[in-house]
Every structure is written in structure tokens, then in C-alpha cells.
Amino acid sequence: MNASSSVIEVSGVVTRFGSQTVHDGVSFTVGRGELVGLIGGSGTGKSVLLREIIGLDRPTEGSIRVLGTDIWKASAAELAAVRRRFGVMFQDGALFSSLDVAHNVAVPLLEHTRLAKDAIWPLVNLRIAQAGLPPEAGAKMPSELSGGMRKRAAIARALALEPEVIFLDEPTSGLDPITARAFDKLMRFLVDDLNITVFLVTHDLDTLLTVVDRLIVLARGKVVGDGPVREIVDLDDPWVRSYFSIRTMAATESGSERHGT
Amino acid sequence: MTKALDSAAAGRWVSLETSAEGATLRLAGDWRLPSLATLGHALQTARSVRPIVGIDGQALTALDTAGALVMLRHLQSLAVDPTAIAFDNFSPVHRRVVEVVLSRLHEITVDPVRHRRGIVAEIGFQTESLGHLLLGHLNFLGYVAGGIGSLLGHPWRLRTQELAAQFEQVGIRAIPVVALVTFLIGVVFAYLLGLQAARYGANIFVVDGVAIGMAREFAPILVAVIIAGRSGAAFTAQLGTMKLTEETDAIRVLGLSPMDVLILPRVFALVVALPLLVFVGDVMSNLGAMAMAAAMLDITPATYLERLSVALSMRHLWVGLAKAPVFALFIAVIGIRMGMTVSRDTRAIGASTTSTVVQGIVSVILLDALFAVVFQALEI
Prior knowledge:
The complex is a heterodimer. Chain A has a single domain, classed as Rossmann fold. Helices cover 40% and strands 23% of the residues of chain A. Chain A contains 9 helices and 10 strands. Chain B has 2 domains: 100 residues, STAS domain (Transcription Regulator spoIIAA, 2-Layer Sandwich); 236 residues, no CATH class. Chain B is built from 13 helices and 4 strands. Chain B has a 4-stranded mixed beta sheet. The longest helix of chain B is centred in the middle third of the chain and has 40 residues. Chain B is elongated and about 115 Å long. The N terminus of chain B is likely disordered. The interface between A and B is medium-sized, with 32 and 32 residues.
């Protein structure tokens, strides 16, 4: 396994729910150390695709390889092994509500390593700090956290085992713009400083335009665009055009307003 | 100059090089999470008399933040300031990892201390929270009474549709389970009494025992316990979910009253439904006993009914039916309040629902004991 080989390989994925076809031959690859965003209108199956990649929902046809392992052909042991090498942040954090933040972060370490307790807690604290949470957040219960802190705690848990890939589902949804931008920085930090591959599903145009290396656009069941953000913006696709035109319009409007005052 | 101080195993990860200025740690191999425990040991064995002044990363094949953390904490444990150390020959990627951890190092404290209460403190704490709970229930009962009072002044505000829907849920749909359980209890009760009565040739008095016992005590208690588990729990789960999804807030903001829309329909529905269900229980338990009596004690259904009309005075039936609305009020108030006061935390709904069932059943039994004392005093 060499370091330059692709980290995520989706080829010919078809997903059908009854007579409804959500994905009709979706293929793309993600290389090591990339920050890739997946976008698409609602109902285009972004979240379903993410769930298929991380091994929760089975695609009707096609194959998905993560870190060289075919997720849907792997044995239970192989799947467990590859799951230890990637982290997932669910949309609302999905923290275990009966455990405080520190124990949430410790779960993967306690389950998958044989480290002594006194080796685990400093590591947990490092993860909490890396996710941008104050040290005292460790003793808090998930119900005591704001939405942004819950997401950070979820990142800390996803980082616990030092994963090679992190999957993020709508990492900035429901956050205020300042927190959201801090989150963008955090994602960039994961890629640039820790050399982690980040794959995210998002609608946050600021995230897309500022931190994402590459965009994959899902529309009509297929990948209609795949490339750097600048190229995608100019893509000749009806959905992409209306998506970015609405957003740019809003951006320029608020910009001119600011000029007026 | 260079001397490997330690065993080959430790030397695979760390070796020590001493010079005039001090010692330099040479790191080698994969310094990653999977080998973290070994790394800690290797560092322990690479002790030096001279202070550590530098760390060499040339032979590192991999370094992650966990590995860097162990190394930096080792320096801290030796009272060496990691920021004053020279990190030599680290690849840019590895240097970056060290810097990342170094920048966070001051935030990493020791394991947060967890407070464990002693047993006496725990008893006190639980007693206090029980007191709070009961006071809260009393308060809520007053609030509901106020709601009923205000509804009497404006009877058109009664949500008849919601009331009907709730009545269907808690009353009509509960008939099968209530009927089944009370029928079987009637069978068992008749069998139990029949065993004794047959020995004295007093078969016919089984009818008295079953009819009076079921009507006065067992049907109300049994049905109330079933409903506490069925509808009380449902109230808590429904209202708790509505609270979490801010539906109750939406009701308030839309200018509706949760009292009219949510609380009173449930209370009225249960208060009306429970006596009716108890009556279903009275009938079914006698049917069960009748079946058992015919099979076991040679009492024909006709004889059973004849004896029933003599043995069971209306007084007994009324005593049982009169208790039911009181049970219902408590079950409803507990279920609703537990639902409306869940904290914003998905785990809370489960805990509250469990608590509702326990509280409902205990309150039914306490109330029944209270009724027994009162009826005894009144000689009913």
C-alpha cells in the first residue's frame, strides 16, 4: 500500500429505493491529503452516499473502497480494521448522551487500544484541545454543550485514533458564521498539519469557496462536476449554475449594502 | 562517543547520544498510536545523567500526535522545557506534528477529577430530589386544577376532537389487553379459591370471593397498573418528544395553551376511560371465574349468575369504580408532568418514561391502601 494511492474510491455506485433511483452510476476517487467537498441539491443522495462510503448503508450496485478495503466485500474483521483508520462526524455530533465529553473521546481509545489509563487521559485532552475546545469542556455532558461545541467534541472523538481519513456530514450547519469559519480553519488544520484526508458533505458556500481543495457535484444521480472550486463555479450545468448564481447574488447584494452604509 | 545504553528492544525506538553540551535522544521507527505503550517504556529506559538538550528525528519513519505527545510529556516529566529543546533532522511533516502538539501542551492537564458521592451524601441527595419531584407534582396538580377551573368558565374551549382522539388511544384501544388480563386473573382466582372451598363443600362461595374481591380491589388495581404502564408511559414519551422538538413551544407561540391542547384532553380522557376499563375488568374476571367454576367446581353458568346477583351488592361495585378516576388523575398528572419537564437531552425521555411507570404504579398502590383505610373508617 503506497501513500499516494487513492484513499476513497467510489466506482459505479447505483442506489435504488424501490423504483426510485438515487444514484445512477456514481464514480470518483479522493487522494491522500485532499480536502474534498460533496455538494448537490436535496434529494440527490449526498448523505446516503456518505453512509454507503462509511459502511452503514449498502449500495444496490457498484463498489466502494476506503483505504484499499472494499467496504461491502470486506469481512467483519477487515471492516472493523479499516473503521479504526477513519473517523466520522455526524451532523449533530452523535455524542453518547450518557458519557461526558472526555469519556466520549476516550471510547475509541478504550475499545481499540491497550493503553493504560494514565496514557489515555493526556491523549484525550490533546484531542479536546486539537478540536478547539477549552480543557474544562471534558467534564461536561453533551446536553450542556452548544451546537458548535457538540460538533467540536464529535471531531475530537473522530480524531481519537489518529485516523487517516475523516468524514464530516454538514460540519458547519446550524453554526453562526464566526464559529463556522473557525470550523473551516480546523478542517484546513487537519489536512495541512496532520496530513489527514477530509471528505465532507456541505452546503456552506463560504466553506466551499475558502477551504475546500476540490468539489464533487452530485445531480440527477450522477457526478456532474469534479474539480477545483474555480472550475466548478463556471461549470455549464443548470443546477450548478443556479446554485452558485443564487449564492453569488446574495453575496454581492450584502456586499453592496455594506458599501452603502 | 555514541553508546547504546539499553536493550535492543528499547534501542529500536530510542537511543541516547551524549556530548559535552548534554544528551540527545535519537528517535527511530513508527512513533504512532498503536505502539504507544512500548514507546513510553522505551523512553523510560533511555535515561541519562546529563540533561537532554536535543531530539533527533532523522530515523523516524512515522510520527503522529499521540507519539509526539508521549515524547513531549516525557520531557516534561524530566523537568525539561520542551520549547527550549532543539528538534534536529525532523522531516517537515514530523516537525509540524511536534509543533501542533507543542502549541497545545499547556492546555493538557491531568485527568479531570471526578466526584463520587459517599453513601450518606447519596441518600441525602436522592431524598432531596425526591422531595423536589413530589412538590413539583403537587404544584402541577394545582396547575391542572386551575386549568379545569378556568375551563369550567369557558367550556367552549374544550378540545373535543383531541379529547376524542385521546379517549380512543387510552380507553378503547386498551380494552383487549385489559379484557385478556382480567379474564385470566378471574380464572386463576376462581381456581385458587376453589381449591380451598371444595374441601369444605362450599363451592358456591367461590362466586362471592371472586366477585367481591375483583370488584372492590383487584380489577381497579390491575387495570390501573396496566394503564400506568401503557398510557402513563405514552404520555411522557409523547410530550417529552414534543418538548425536545420544540412543539410545545410552538403551541405557546401560536397563541394556543398547552393546558387546553395537550394537558386537559389527556387528563379528561384517562379519568373517563379508567372507570369504564375497570368495569370491563369486572365483567371479564367474572366470565373467567364462571368458566373455571363450570370446569372445576360443577357450578353451571346459570347458577353462577344467580349467586352473583345475591353476593355482589352494588356497593362493592361502586367502591371499585369510584377509586378508578382518582387513580387515573394521578397516572395522568405524573405522566404529563414527567413528559413536560424532560431536559433537552434524548437520554432523558427514556429515563423519564421509566420513572413515570414506577411512580404511576407506586402511587396507585399507595392510593388504594389509603382508600382501604378510609373505607374501613367509614364502614363502607
